[in-house]
């Protein structure tokens, strides 16, 4: 497995985990959990989402694994 494939798979797993956390947060928002706890968890999820967005932005300069075969043929 190439480094680019590893990065791509890790990004995919991270995105899936982010979706799970977001769904859990939505369930927490609808539950009878204290508002202070909801706000703290919401802040944590939002911070992690922002970090993921920044990392994705910086990773865009790396060739996507879908383009690995085409890399160097230009």
List keywords for this structure.
74 residues; 2 helices; mainly alpha
Structural summary, described in words:
The chain contains 2 helices and no strands. The chain has helices spanning 3-30, 35-59. The longest helix is centred in the first third of the chain and has 28 residues, at 3-30. The protein is elongated and about 45 Å long.
The biggest beta sheet reads:
none
Task: State the share of residues found in helices, binned by percent.
Answer: over 70%
Order of helices and strands: HH
Beta-strand residue fraction: under 5%
Radius of gyration, Cα only, in angstroms?
Answer: 17 Å
Number of DSSP strand runs: 0
Q: Runs with pLDDT <50, length 5+?
A: none
Q: What value does the average pLDDT take?
A: 82
Structural class: mainly alpha
Q: For the terminal residues, how far apart are their CA atoms?
A: 23 Å
Short summary of the structure?
By secondary structure, this protein is an all-alpha fold. 72% of the residues lie in helices and 0% in strands. The chain is elongated.
Topology:
Blueprint (H helix, E strand, L loop, with lengths): L2 H28 L4 H25 L15
Helix pairs in contact: 1-2
């Amino acid at each position: 497995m190439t480094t680019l494939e590893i990065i791509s798979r890790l990004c995919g797993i991270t995105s899936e985990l982010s979706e799970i956390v977001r769904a859990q947060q939505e369930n927490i928002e609808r539950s009878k959990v204290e508002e202070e706890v909801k706000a703290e968890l919401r802040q944590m999820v939002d911070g992690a989402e922002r970090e993921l967005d920044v990392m994705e932005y910086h990773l865009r300069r790396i060739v996507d694994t879908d383009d690995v075969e085409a890399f160097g043929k230009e």
